[in-house]
Amino acid sequence: MKSKAIALPQDHGQARRLFMAGFAMLTLAVLFVLGQVSAVQAQERPATFADLAEQISPSVVNITTSTVIAGRTGPGDLLPEGSPFEDFFNDLDRGPGSGAQRSSALGSGFVISADGYIVTNNHVIEDADEILIEFFPGGEEGVPAELIGTDPNTDIAVLKVDL
Question: Where does residue 63 rank: exposed (0-12), middle (13-18), buried (19+ CB within 10 A)?
Fold first, then answer.
């Protein structure tokens, strides 16, 4: 007995067309979903700079620092003995404000985490004895802040307040 091969006609063209149609539908579905995500993201952006400022204002803080500075020292040894100005400058050195004084400075920063970490510039808090934070929109007294760390090279400082 001889075997005979039966040849069935194969239509590769139709299978290919079905595959391409399915691929095209999948691509369109993915593009549709991505388009919807992009549209939602575009709607979340503030329309104006004022809207943006209103949105982020609660994270901006005012920083007040105070530092004790030494009193005036006057020219002292710079004047020759017996100079007519010697008595004048000695009287100034003994006058009001001749002792240590407290100096205040202002700056700003922003809250970077919900647990009270704040970033500011190092020069704002450098050498400060006391650091107080005022939150937007204000109205309450400053909250004491703890200095966590500084980097003078990049002029960055991190503070922490108890919320």
Answer: buried
Q: Which residues are paired to 146 by β-bridges?
A: 160
Q: How many structural domains does the chain have?
A: 2
CB-CB contact of 143 with 161 (8 Å): yes
Which of 30-39, 84-93, 103-112 has maximum average pLDDT? 103-112
Domain limits at 30? 14-45
Mean pLDDT taken over the chain: 77
Cis peptide before 96 (omega within 30 of 0): no
Same structural domain for residues 66 and 144?
A: yes
pLDDT tens per residue across span 113-126: 989 999 999 999 99
Residues 67 and 18 in one domain: no
Residue 3, pLDDT > 90, answer no
Q: Answer yes or no: do 41 and 59 share one domain.
A: no
**Residues 41 and 58 occupy one common structural domain:** no
Residue 131 belongs to a domain with what CATH number?
Answer: 2.40.10.10
Instruction: Give the mean model confidence (pLDDT) for residues 6-30.
Output: 67
